[in-house]
Amino acid sequence: MRIVGGEFRGKKLILPDDTRIRPTSDRTREALFNILGHDSHFRTPQGALPLGARVLDIFAGTGALGLEALSRGAAHVTFIDNHPDSLKLIRENVSAIGAARQADVLSRNGSNPGRAGATYDLILMDPPYNEGLAPQCISALKAGGWMSSSTVIVIELAAKETFDLPPDMVTIKERKYGAARLIFLKSA
Question: Looking at residue 102, which CATH number applies to its domain?
Answer without folding.
Answer: 3.40.50.150
